[in-house]
Amino acid sequence: MIKDGKIYFAKAGEDLSQQMFLLPKMANRHGFICGATGTGKTITLKVLAESFSDLGVPVFLADVKGDLSGMIFPGTETDDMKERIARFGLSEDGFSYQAYPAAYFDVFGEKGIPLRTTVSEMGPALMSEVLKLNATQRDILNVVYKIADDENLVLSDTKDLKAILQYASENASEFEAEYGRIAKQSVSAIVRAIVALEAEGGENFFGEPAINVADFFTNGEGGKGMINILESSALINKPRVYSAFMLYLLSELFEVLPEIGDPEKPRMVFFFDEAHLLFKNADDALMEKIGQVIRLIRSKGVGVFFITQSPGDIPDEISSQLGNKIEHGLRAYTPAERKALKAAAAAFRENPDFDTEEVLSSLGTGEAVVSMLDEKGIPGVAQHAFILPPQSRMGMITDKERANAVKMSNLALKYNTPVDPDSAYEFLERRKQQLETEAAQAEAAREAEKERKKAEKEAEKAREKAEREAEKAAEKERRAVERSVKSVASTAAGSVGREIGHLFGNKLGGKFGKTLGGNIGASLGRNILGTLFRH
């Protein structure tokens, strides 16, 4: 409720005469709502969210159990509500049942408007947290993001991230000089982590259109701030994804909002339920980032309230920045729980009228120890307070009511239909196909050149063979001619020699001499001719 421009959320004192306020101008100094299960944290969150909405301040909150969804309907009169209104004297304060403007979001797109971001916008630090990477793998992922940035490759969804990882691995030797060694084993481990995330439905919240946080800064009927509700009953089962995504939204708000210092009321209030998931197992780098965002986002006019079971769930460096404190009952049955109770009590400014530690251990449902910042930013003394009831419906809405509310939202038209942009995967696929085409063309050219050379070689062989065959034929013909000539010449030479021999033989001795002379003459003639042909 709003009273005198302040958030009226509780009453204190034995007669409930003291009204407890949260000053809007101090809401950006952050705060926490803590307490054991069943002590009333959710009601307190709801009362504060309604009050900020009444101020015209938009709210973002995670609905882990589904019982915050009823804000779009006014509360209903019950015997319990009548008793509480009468006990608190709320009728005189102007209490009335009211509906509040709300937008329902769901990372998985099942119970609300799809809430997406891109791999690029998530960044390597938070993506490493989501993928549960070790130090070496985180370094590799940082390098891969840098390569994508240097080569103007957009990382929209998980297939883009896998594509750039494969590209970096395949070209590791080329990148090593500038970016360092990219171990293929580490790349394979990162890819396996991405596949595991996809198997859990993680690919649903990476893609386009990515959420524009400016869409959270809207107002509903009567100027009430929009209550943006993230359905988290399924998301909470993936604690690293839940915490990283919530931190991403905070980081995005920090990045896009201009500095405004300390405004009269916050621009937006962010409720981080199950906040212990954000800090559990967070490494030094992540803790540093969380601390930086929480410390600096106040100057952007954004207040952050952490909701968890124990203030001990919040690291000291973060807790020291939380000025507004609402501590519901703590149970202390074990030595560790008693130690946590003592520490929780010590975090409050002491009230001489009661023992804070004793009160914390005996608070009933809807009761809390409260300390709010005053006008000067000084924490008030601890007060035993009773939280006011909410003005909107308590409990869940039906699936049909939720579906109708989502359907009526203008944001559903903007975000319901996913878009697959021309990003790293498509670019690298085209590049791969181009390289394959060029390689195929080069191979075809090599084969064609090989065939050309083979044909030339075969033609050369055929020409050489033809020349050899021609030479052989010519030689054969020459020899045949020579033999013919030799044979004819030999016959002629023998005949001439015989005739000459006959002439000499007649003179030597009759018929015998003639014959002998003819034979000798023929032989001499052939020998002389043969000698001439050899030379």
Describe the structure in your own words:
It is a single chain. This protein has 16 helices and 13 strands. 52% of the residues lie in helices and 11% in strands. The longest helix has 111 residues.
Using brief descriptors, characterize the structure shown:
16 helices, 11% strand, 2 domains, 52% helix, 535 residues, 13-stranded mixed β-sheet, alpha/beta, Rossmann fold
The Cα radius of gyration reads 49 Å
- CATH structural architecture of the largest domain: 3-Layer(aba) Sandwich
Principal-axis shape: rod-shaped
Structural class: alpha/beta
Number of strands: 13
pLDDT averaged over residues: 88
* CATH homologous superfamily label of the largest domain: P-loop containing nucleotide triphosphate hydrolases
Q: How many domains comprise the coordinates?
A: 2
Helix fraction? 40-55%
- What's the helix-strand series? EEEEHEHEEHHHHHEHEHHEHEHHEEHHH
CATH topology value of the largest domain: Rossmann fold
Largest sheet: 13 strands, mixed
Proportion in β-strands: 5-15%
Low-confidence stretches: none
Oligomer: single chain
CA distance, first residue to last residue: 137 Å
In the CATH scheme, the class of the largest domain would be Alpha Beta
- Tally of individual helices: 16
Q: How is this fold's topology laid out?
A:
Elements lengths: L1 E2 L2 E7 L5 E5 L8 E4 L6 H14 L4 E5 L15 H10 L13 E5 L6 E2 L4 H13 L3 H16 L7 H13 L1 H8 L4 H16 L27 E5 L7 H18 L11 E5 L3 H4 L4 H14 L4 E7 L7 H4 L4 E4 L7 H12 L9 H7 L4 E5 L11 E5 L11 H10 L1 H6 L8 H111 L1
Helix pairs in contact: 3-4, 3-8, 4-7, 5-7, 5-16, 8-10, 12-13
